[in-house]
């Protein structure tokens, strides 16, 4: 076994790249990033970089260098009801194939060692270091290991043990359909057929379209059923999407009480949990990377590797407060019983509520700091719904 590294980051996606970049900015030079894949590699994802993602990239000293579409308009639909919501700052829509590879290259240019095609098979936390064994048989050791290795995270499995929760499901594909404009489509209509989530259609830089759906796990749906919902939902928009081309992907929703750290171990990004309401993961990953990089740098400086306050740091940061709020909303909007219809009528019919979320997407508002305003808007719309049964639910079959 070679000498003990300061930090080993498992995973070179946005969360891993962000953590490595943050550590470099904090003066930690002995960082090794490992990833089982070879870049460029694809990942099923809508590819939308919100205002918060742009802010995190700037804070990390990373740049957006790949082709993208700047979309300043979102169309939110439920049945016959549609609202067009403008964004103060456009969402940059990218391909993960390009974006992730560009981050890896930028981190390498900083001088960080990134090894691809390097699968970590096992880790063992010892009193003075974490021992890692690679698939190749090579053994490494590090003072700190950061799990940025996604939904199947080896670090997350060690932290959570046998605890199991149902994952979100995402199905994503590219189609040749060309959009008439650069608006992003969010369609909640398939909730009438059993989806608990929404489907999307985002324009890409070469004229193709990124389409997909997100399903919250309150209702059991198998893969073929979700593919059928995606195909049928897109057909209503005149988009042909062969079922066989949709790639499925599980993801963990953020759980405020779930373990995200242990002595010498941290998790970030998908391994720590995505946004339960929207399925957003890129901005979450980048913001987590900032927090984890700071925590790891402090631990090395203080020789205190317990990370006892890491979960609290994530929870109290802007990203944690926003994730907690969206988790609360998702549990109501995506519930299994008929109550989801009331919440759809409340949340999707009010232009003021949609504008609040548009400001959050643009990164001009921290919605968790405007909870009182949001709750008042929800309460007012709830009273209207009970009084007149207006909004999307009135049109529900």
Written overview of the protein:
This protein has three domains: 5-67 and 96-164 and 253-321, 3-Layer(bba) Sandwich (FAD/NAD(P)-binding domain), CATH 3.50.50; 168-251, Alpha-Beta Plaits (2-Layer Sandwich); 337-395, no CATH class. Helix content is 35%, strand content 24%. It has helices at 14-25, 51-60, 96-109, 154-160, 223-235, 282-302, 310-316, 318-333, 339-347, 351-362, 371-388; strands at 5-10, 31-35, 48-49, 69-78, 81-93, 113-116, 120-125, 130-134, 139-147, 168-175, 184-187, 197-203, 209-215, 247-251, 261-262, 265-267. The strands form two sheets. Strands 1, 2, 6, 7, 8, 9, 15 and 16 form an eight-stranded mixed beta sheet that branches. Strand 7 and strand 8 (130-134) form a beta hairpin. The chain starts with a strand and ends in a 9-residue tail after the last helix.
For the secondary structure, the number of strands is: 16
Order of helices and strands: EHEEHEEHEEEEHEEEEHEEEHHHHHH
> Average pLDDT, to the nearest integer?
93
- N- and C-termini, Cα separation: 65 Å
Cα shape: globular
Rg computed from alpha carbons, rounded to a whole number of angstroms: 21 Å
Structural class: alpha/beta
Q: Would you identify the CATH H-level superfamily of the largest domain?
A: FAD/NAD(P)-binding domain
As a percent range, the share of helical residues equals 25-40%
The number of distinct helices, counting runs of at least 4 residues, comes to 11
Strand content: 15-25%
- Major sheet: size, sense and barrel closure? 8 strands, mixed
List low-confidence stretches: 393-397
- CATH class descriptor name of the largest domain: Alpha Beta
CATH architecture of the largest domain: 3-Layer(bba) Sandwich
């Amino acid at each position: 076994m070679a000498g003990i590294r300061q930090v080993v980051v498992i995973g070179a996606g946005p969360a891993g790249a962000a953590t490595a970049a943050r550590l470099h900015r904090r003066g930690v030079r002995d960082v090794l990033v490992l990833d089982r894949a070879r870049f460029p590699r694809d990942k099923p994802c809508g590819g939308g970089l919100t205002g918060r993602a742009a802010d995190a990239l700037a804070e990390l000293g990373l740049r957006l260098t790949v082709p993208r579409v700047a979309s300043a308009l979102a169309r939110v639909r439920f049945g016959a009801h549609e609202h067009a919501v403008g964004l103060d700052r456009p969402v940059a829509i990218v391909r993960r194939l390009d974006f992730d590879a560009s981050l890896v290259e930028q981190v390498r240019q900083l001088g960080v060692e990134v090894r691809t095609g390097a699968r970590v098979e096992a880790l063992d936390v010892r009193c003075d270091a974490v021992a890692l064994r690679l698939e190749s048989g090579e053994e490494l050791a590090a003072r700190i290991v950061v799990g940025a290795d996604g939904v199947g995270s080896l670090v997350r499995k060690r932290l959570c043990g046998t605890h199991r929760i149902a994952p979100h499901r995402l199905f994503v594909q590219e189609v040749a359909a060309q959009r008439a404009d650069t608006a992003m489509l969010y369609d909640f209509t398939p909730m009438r057929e059993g989806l608990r989530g929404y489907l999307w259609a985002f324009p890409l830089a070469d004229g193709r379209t990124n389409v997909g759906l997100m399903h919250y796990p309150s209702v059991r749906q198998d893969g073929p059923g979700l593919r059928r919902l995606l195909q049928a939902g897109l057909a209503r928009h005149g988009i042909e999407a062969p079922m066989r081309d949709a790639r499925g992907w599980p993801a963990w929703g953020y759980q405020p009480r779930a373990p995200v750290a242990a002595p010498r171990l941290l998790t970030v990004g998908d391994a720590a949990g995505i946004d339960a309401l929207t399925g957003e993961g890129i901005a979450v990953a980048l913001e987590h990377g900032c927090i984890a990089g700071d925590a790891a740098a402090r631990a090395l400086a203080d020789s205190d590797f317990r990370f006892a306050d890491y979960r609290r740091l994530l929870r109290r940061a802007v990203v944690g407060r926003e994730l907690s709020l969206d988790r609360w909303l998702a549990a109501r909007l995506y519930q299994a019983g008929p109550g989801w219809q009331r919440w759809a009528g409340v949340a999707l019919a009010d232009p003021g509520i949609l504008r609040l979320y548009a400001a959050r997407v643009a990164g001009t508002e921290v919605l968790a700091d405007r909870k009182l305003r949001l709750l008042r808007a929800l309460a007012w719309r709830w009273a209207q719904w009970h009084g007149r049964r207006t909004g999307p639910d009135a049109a529900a079959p």
